[in-house]
Amino acid sequence: MKQRKKVLLIATGGTIASGYTEEGLAPQIAAESLLRYVEEYRDFCSVDVEEPFSLDSTNVYGKHWLALAGLIEKKYTDYDGFVICHGTDTMAFTAAALSYLIQNSKKPIVVTGAQKPIDLPVTDARTNLLDSLRFASDARAHGVNIVFGGNVIAGTRAKKERSKSYNAFSSINYPNIAVIRDGRIIFYIEDGDRIQGPVTFYHELNEKILLLKLIPGMDGTVLNSLFPFYDGVIIEAFGVGGFPDYGEVPFYSEIRRWIAAGKFVMMATQVTHEGSDMEVYQVGKVIKEAFGLMEAYDMTLEATVTKAMWALGQTRETEAFRRLFYRTVNHDILLREE
Fold first, then answer.
1. Taking CA 85 as the corner, what is the angle to CA 190 and CA 66, rounded to the nearest 5 degrees?
2. Lowest mean pLDDT among 91-95, 110-114, 331-335
3. Which of 15, 156, 300, 306 is an active site residue?
4. For the segment 247-279, what is each residue's pLDDT rounded down to a tens digit?
């Protein structure tokens, strides 16, 4: 008889565990109760439960990512895999952050959730949870992934693109790792044998990173007002990336000020697919070459933000930061500076 895998279910709240209140949906269902809806898991794994916090994912941020990584580090040798139940709204940020905080894991760390509470007659929660437990029990699975709507997405490549539909998450600029259909896992990418070295846990994030979305007419004054509060800014620009040249305070002069003060300025794109390339147009190429600006290329915004927080938590030295930021982690970047 095949030995069942041992999985730790980490419940953090979210829609999957929510109930209706007079003020709207809010996390209410206890962690142990989630398993009552997916009794089939007993065929392939045993499950223990932890509940470090119970929140709507709107309220999840850096300290919670560190707490989750710390809990997995503490329990890492005791389990074959981990499943985190999480709200969908910031799930992509959490999955990306955990990809940087927990690297080279040969064990699967799955993040999942639902668009409807698990106790409703019609819901995606039971399928997502059972699929996640199944994936966390598979010997081929490893690293941080989101399992949702039958898709397995690398933790750094997921984005919530639909606010209500069950197929809420897409893999951006990278294929799905696998799909799960009728209890069968079909892998598209099997690369566990490429993991070199032991699992590495990181314990520092610098959350003083701002994501600034440009709109037509915005000028550099906004950077001036934000200067005291942040150590780095990721500017979400139009198209493949560039800075507008208008207004009383041009971006050029403000970026000079940030960089002279040892702060980091990076460029990303508002366009979801295909990534940035500041070298294409004059509005990007001139300022990139003037300051050696970094850009996100094909990374998701969620990965760009959390990777910057992680990298800046390890170093404030410019070249060391650049090396960390452009190092591929959990499939997060294909196009990058060498």
1. 85
2. 331-335
3. 15
4. 666 788 889 999 999 999 999 999 999 999 999
Q: Give the C-alpha separation, 86 to 65, whole Å.
A: 11
Q: Comparing C-alpha atoms, which of 59, 115, 57 is closest to residue 91?
A: 57
**pLDDT value for 154:** 98
How much is the average pLDDT of 284-311?
A: 95
Using CB atoms within 10 Å of the CB of residue 157, give its burial: 0 to 12 exposed, 13 to 18 middle, 19+ buried: buried
Is residue 167 helix, strand or coil?
Answer: coil
User: Has 269 been annotated as catalytic?
Assistant: no
**Are 33 and 19 contacting, i.e. CB atoms less than 8 angstroms apart?**
no
Q: What pTM, to 2 d.p., does this model score? A: 0.95
50 touches 74 (CB < 8 A): no
Structure tokens at 107: 């064990």
* Whether pLDDT at 294 is above 60: yes
**Three-class secondary structure assignment of 283-317:** HHHHHHHHHCCEECCCCCHHHHHHHHHHHHHHCCC
DSSP 51-70: -S--B-GGG--HHHHHHHHH
Backbone angles phi, psi at 330, to 5 degrees: 50, 45
